[in-house]
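Take a look at the protein record below with the fold in mind.
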Amino acid sequence: MLKRLVLAVIVLLGLAQTWDRFTHRAIARPDGVLVATEPQQTEVEDVVPFAFREFTLTPLAKFSLHGRVLLASRYRLGREAALAPYDLGIGWQRMSDSAVLRGLRLSQSARFLHWRWRDAPPIPEAEITRSAANIHLIPASRYIASRIAALRPGQLVSLQGHLVEASRPDGWRWRSSLSRGDSGNGACELLYVEAIDEDGGAG
């Protein structure tokens, strides 16, 4: 009986993983720049920190972007995951072009977006850095969280909210980057997402 139960659980987990891969499969897009604009960032006039669960969030800038989803990851362990459970690798301008993306091998790990190429990058590496980002997403509501969770590579998505610095009473802090041209540790955006709109695309 126990062996049958364990086997059933394994089968169900396998089916769940297969379904998750299917529902999050990449959307094919034609060659060409799909998003010509770059993210918009403006100053916050009246900075008012606010409580969010066990954290305090301090707005650093208003932020909005329209981009192509490159990769998406879900995190469940640790303080960072408790605050920002999703990372979105996103590209705009030439990093929204399928012809460019075919020349790159993209991956996400340790809450970074990584890119590699075989012989030479399809566009200058500095342009890759300026035209793509790994954004840590803090959903403002369960509804927004559910829409983030459903995003697929290749989708076009618009996000609006605030770049923030997060803190806790024990002294822990996590601060968003305010530049699109930086790289390495501290270069990712930490975005409190207040609105999301996505284009489902084809099949």
About this structure: The first helix runs from residue 2 to 23. The helical segments are 2-23, 79-83, 98-101, 125-130, 142-149.
